[in-house]
Design brief:
Blueprint (H helix, E strand, L loop, with lengths): L3 H17 L1 H4 L30 H36 L3 H14 L3 H12 L3 H28 L2 H8 L4 H37 L11 H8 L8 H33 L1
Helix pairs in contact: 1-3, 1-10, 3-4, 3-6, 3-8, 4-6, 5-6, 6-8, 7-8, 8-9, 8-10, 9-10
């Protein structure tokens, strides 16, 4: 449907704005108990309170700031690493290319989320560790399609002509391959952001963020499921927002991919 990407974009923009302006929108300190545990919605707590009496609305808006910012950062790590590995393996072929191909395929044999969990297990719990683990765990999945795309571009006539004119590898990379591949890279990065967001919220749901009081959507979902009968909103709110955010990012990525294919075939 034509309106799907616009609805998805509107949802993502709304979540980003809520996260940016969390200090203005939150009525209370997200870490501070202010009322009775599991209190019903009231003027002071519009969405009620969690099991420790903390304002659910304040924790929700600050949770979005943590979930989205760490997801963007983790996706950026994966994109930068994957792009670098893919580009270097194409421009510096022979042994290095074979080594990178073997390393990427070996890493892809392990699901990215499981790889991230293994990294957290080795490095210890903590939000910074979760961010790094998701970024590193997702890099191989980004490097493989990036490498294929870069190899296709490297065989094009304009790259062959640049080589014939004596252009160096870095010039070919930054003046010819990356500019012509940026559209597909953006599409890949958008799709990968959904994976990073799911990875972050999954690891925090499993309690690997280290701080149980952390206002983060995955951690809030984990806490809310314990009180699903008494106060279902504690789990429904973060669970619904996580699902809609993942679906919106995927819809936006699919639209970008189709748009690029349409322009490529035109």
């Amino acid at each position: 449907m034509r309106w799907t990407p616009w609805i998805s974009l509107a949802w993502l923009v709304a979540m980003i704005l809520i996260s940016i302006f969390a200090p203005l929108l939150a009525q209370h300190d997200p870490y501070m108990p202010i009322t009775q545990p599991l209190a019903d919605p009231a003027p002071e707590t519009p969405l009620g309170a969690d099991a420790l009496g903390r304002d659910l609305w304040s924790r929700f808006v600050f949770g979005g700031r943590i979930s989205l910012s760490t997801s963007f950062a983790a996706a950026l790590i994966a994109v930068l690493l994957g792009t670098t590995v893919g580009l270097v393996s194409v421009l510096w072929e022979t042994h290095f290319d074979r080594l990178m191909l073997w390393a990427t395929n070996t890493a892809l044999a392990i699901p990215g989320l499981l790889l991230a969990m293994l990294l957290v297990t080795v490095m210890g719990p903590g939000m910074d560790v979760v961010l790094l683990a998701v970024g590193l765990g997702g890099a191989p999945a980004f490097a493989q399609p990036a490498r294929i795309m870069f190899r296709q571009l490297a065989s094009r006539e304009f790259v062959t002509a640049a080589r014939a004119l004596g252009a160096g590898k870095l010039r070919i990379a930054f003046r010819h391959i990356l500019p012509n591949g940026r559209g597909e890279l953006i599409s890949l990065a958008t799709t990968h952001l959904a994976w990073a967001f799911m990875g972050i919220t999954t690891l925090t749901f499993l309690g690997l963020a280290g701080d149980p009081a952390l206002p983060e959507w995955g951690a809030m979902l984990n806490e809310g499921r314990k009180h699903l009968i008494e106060t279902p909103l504690l789990a429904i709110l973060p669970g619904t927002v996580i699902s809609l955010t993942i679906l919106s990012i995927h819809a936006l990525g699919d639209w970008l991919s189709r748009d690029l294919e349409a322009h490529g075939s035109a």
